[in-house]
């Protein structure tokens, strides 16, 4: 569905050349769910912004299977809702001027139903809880009917109970619609609950990849999931140079993901 080859991003800070991303290779299979984990500043969000087309790479290519850019939906850590628009208005904002009003209304109704906000379509952002605002942000991406759904720590600011509920809802939505998903998080438990494949980044590079061959729905207390979570935490706690040795070809090869139902 999407192939990344030799992707790098450099920034000029004063007189220094800062490398945010270095020689990243990645292949996303259609309908796959990839979660990217790593320390702060490791390049996770930069990779997501490049995939979204929000910034241009310094070197490397992002190639699409049919030669055409897919429809992309983005969800950020902050919902960034417009306070003067209702829930329905915020959800449908990205479609204004692009499709007919009747089509906007139909898509918004479907997206709000998916995220459980049908009864709040006329509410305004200052009337919403944090979890509800996050649902509006997700609905705003879903109305685009994206082929590629990019999420940058969308649940990080929420309490554990609300976050767990939204993780389950996102899994259900993904199973129903099967967009290709790239999800960035610091939460390793969240990664193994959601992903087909966990990608570990450090120093702007992909230094490890672990498949998650577990059926859904998943239970955080399942021993296989706990064992995988511990292994990923060990990777994250290790020396980056040792991690690169453990996965010597991970920066050069392209991984063809397998979607786990």
Automatic annotation (TrEMBL):
MF-aspect GO terms: ATP binding; ATP hydrolysis activity
Polar residues bias located where? 251-261
**PANTHER family, per this entry?**
ALIPHATIC SULFONATES IMPORT ATP-BINDING PROTEIN SSUB 2, TAURINE IMPORT ATP-BINDING PROTEIN-RELATED
**Phylogenetic classification of the source organism:** Bacteria, Pseudomonadati, Pseudomonadota, Alphaproteobacteria, Hyphomicrobiales
Q: Which InterPro entries match?
A: AAA+_ATPase (IPR003593), ABC_transporter-like_ATP-bd (IPR003439), ABC_transporter-like_CS (IPR017871), ABC_transporter_ATP-bind (IPR050166), P-loop_NTPase (IPR027417)
Q: Annotated region Disordered: where?
A: 239-261
Positions of the ABC transporter domain? 2-228
* Regions annotated as coiled coil: none
Instruction: Supply the PROSITE patterns for this chain.
Output: ABC_TRANSPORTER_1, ABC_TRANSPORTER_2
Specify the species: Chelatococcus asaccharovorans
Q: Does the keyword Transport apply?
A: yes
Pfam families according to UniProt: ABC_tran
Protein name according to UniProt: Sulfonate transport system ATP-binding protein
Q: Which UniProt keywords apply?
A: ATP-binding, Nucleotide-binding, Transport
Q: Which domain of life is it from?
A: Bacteria
> What family is this?
Belongs to the ABC transporter superfamily.
The answer to whether the entry has keyword Nucleotide-binding is: yes
